[in-house]
Design brief:
By secondary structure, this protein is mainly β. It contains two helices and eleven strands. It starts with a helix and ends in a 15-residue tail after the last strand.
């Protein structure tokens, strides 16, 4: 029995080492035409290494845009959770989670506009996003926006045509 437990414990330790090394790799998302790639790099500190990330967008060897989501204390940053290119490769949509575990209902969502070479917060245009996104079409994304008029955590689905969004979010009306 002791031999069996020792083998099992060794196997579990080996699996933990293998999977922790697998997690240490960067995640890469290639555009459909494979000319642009998004690289998600773990940059957290200590035991929180995978809780914060940096996003690098490269075309060939040129860094088009980079966004570091790390924090000084490793507890107030973000980690890229998931990303996807639109079908035509003009937009890369991604969402994040907070490293400190605060606001678990909230999934900050961003998009990279390839023609403008900029990263935008989708929430600046539609409000707080509470669930994962999906890409239903060529240049659009469907998100679930928190609706304060409904019982928490109710959300309304909103399809956003990314081509129609201006360089900056619309001005907020006073009192809204």
């Amino acid at each position: 029995m002791k031999k069996y437990l020792a083998i099992t414990a060794f196997g579990l330790i080996l699996l933990a080492v293998v999977f922790s090394r697998a997690d240490a790799k960067n995640r890469v998302y290639y555009s459909p035409d494979r000319k642009v790639r998004v690289v998600i790099v773990p940059v957290g500190k200590g035991i929180h290494k995978f809780d914060e990330t940096r996003l690098d967008i490269l075309q060939g060897r040129r860094v088009v845009r980079s966004r570091d989501f790390s924090s000084d204390d490793g507890q107030h940053g973000e980690a890229v959770r998931r990303g996807a290119w639109t079908e035509d490769g003009q937009y890369f949509i991604f969402n994040t989670t907070y490293s400190g575990g605060h606001q678990p209902w909230h999934l900050p969502t961003y998009f990279f506009d390839r023609s403008r070479e900029k990263i935008f917060s989708l929430e600046d245009y539609v409000g707080p996003i509470s669930r994962d996104f999906f890409v239903p079409g060529h240049d659009s994304v469907c998100v679930f926006v928190l609706n304060p008029k409904k019982k928490f955590p109710a959300a309304d689905s909103v399809v956003v045509d990314l081509r129609t969004l201006p360089d900056g979010p619309p001005a907020r009306q006073p009192g809204k």
